[in-house]
From TrEMBL:
Pfam families: zf-CHY
Protein name: CHY zinc finger protein
InterPro entries assigned: Mito_Tim_assembly_helper (IPR052604), UCP017292 (IPR016694), Znf_CHY (IPR008913), Znf_CHY_sf (IPR037274)
Native source species: Kurthia populi
Record's keyword terms, sorted: Metal-binding, Zinc, Zinc-finger
Length: 105
């Protein structure tokens, strides 16, 4: 698995987001590389983020940092905890969904 960014621990927290609930990484559609956040992608990649379309939400593009299970975008968006290990995810990440996923306007 290709995971990049300014990671601070093995649960995918980075220098930008590192609370107890900041434990997911997102596979960027543009480069098929997992990053913990958009800022890590902006700092390391040489291209802009391409958003996943709604038709692609079955793609496994979310990595739970606690159990390292890959989840579909649809599964991630439908839950506030990992369905495998039950770790809680940061609900404030919803404010960044529009950067990664095409959302309804």
């Amino acid at each position: 698995m290709n995971l990049r960014g300014q990671l601070v621990d093995e649960q995918t927290r980075c220098v930008h987001y590192h609370t107890a609930k900041d434990i997911i990484a997102i596979k960027m559609k543009c480069c098929h590389t997992y990053y913990p956040c958009y800022q890590c992608h902006e700092e390391e990649a040489d291209h802009p983020i391409t958003r996943w379309t709604k038709m692609e939400w079955d793609e496994k593009a979310i990595l739970c940092g606690r159990c390292h299970e890959e989840l579909s975008i649809a599964t991630y968006l439908a839950h506030d905890t990992c369905p495998h290990c039950h770790a809680a995810w940061n609900p404030r990440c919803e404010g960044h969904y529009h950067l990664y996923f095409e959302m309804e306007e």
